[in-house]
Structure formats: C-alpha cells, structure tokens
Amino acid sequence: MIRSTGLLLLVCAAVPAAELVVRDFRLGVGTRPLEFDYAYTGVLTSSNGTDGFDAALGLEAGGRWSFARAGDALGLVVGADLALDGWSYDGADGLASTWLRLSAGPGFALNDRVTLAAELGVQYGLSALTLPATASAPDFAASGTAMGYDLRVGGNWLVTRRFGIGLFAGWLIASHDLSGDADLTIDQSGWFAGLEAVWRFTDAPPRLE
Hints:
The chain is mostly beta strands. The chain is 6% helix and 68% strand.
C-alpha cells in the first residue's frame, strides 16, 4: 500500500495536469476482509482464535470536497461517508455494521476528467452479530460498537461533465466490541476494493479573490 501511494504521487508529479475541483457525491460498493481474530468470554468458558466469514459486501454513500488554490492540480480532498457492511457466516446472518467514516488526503487532477486520490479514513460504527445454532451450541446474538481505520487509493473518470465512475482499493483495520449472550471482540484487517458512481454537482473552481 505504501509503495502504491508513493507511485501515485510520482505519477502526479511527472504529468501535466488540470485544476483540481472535486465537488462530488458518490455511491460505492466493495469487498471487505473475511478473516478475523476473536476473543470470547462467556459465563462458564472463554476462548480465542482465528476464523473467517463466508462472504462480505460493503455499501457506501458520501461526498468529497477539494481544497486547492485556483489553478493548482494538487490539493487536499476531505470526505464523509455513511457505510453499511455485511458479512455472512455458515450460510446465514453474520456480522452487520453501520459506519460513519471521515477521510482526508491528497488529490490530483490528471486532466479535466480524471482525478486520482489517496486518503486516510477513520470510522465509528454500530455492529450486531447473529450466529445460527449448531449441534454443539445454541444460536448466538450480540451487539456493540466498532472502530476502524483504512488507507485507500483510487481514481474516478467523468464520462460526462457531471457523471462518472471510479475504482478504489485499500487496507482496512477494524475492531468490534460486542456483548449479549456473551462478550465477544472481533478484530479484522485486510485488503478491500470496490467501484463507485460519481455525481459532480458543480465543477466551478475556487474564486481568485
């Protein structure tokens, strides 16, 4: 990830560019890490180990706004997202999390239609876990809070003046502290990737005065 970010910045420095103007609303869908470490504390027993979900999907809706001087191709891009992530376990309901994510990082206008960005994000959420009953254990339910951090790189291309598409990839670290039938902590880390639809509601650059 560090190598990819450095390569992105080198490309940005070497290529002549347009003015950075990001005023976007974005809808995205992406993967989420499947493997996790857990620590379980019940009334009669406790355990810890490593496990994995069967599948995961994340949905995001949010905005991006750039801060750059008039005529500059490079500047700060800040963002805010609402996200809903879901992981399935043993073919049934698993973990569901609702997040508020804030981000900031450098953006670069490669030309009038293509923008590249790298961003560091922090997210806080609410999580709920439900596991089906097995031959050796009853069903399980717990809920609580979650905290996460991610580093992502991506780019978007405006197909028209207002609408475009984008790709992103990154590394996520998240921890869920849950309580209910027992106390459970789930720690995740891993790669994710996704695509997004972009609506640039204005492309007016900052005023000179």
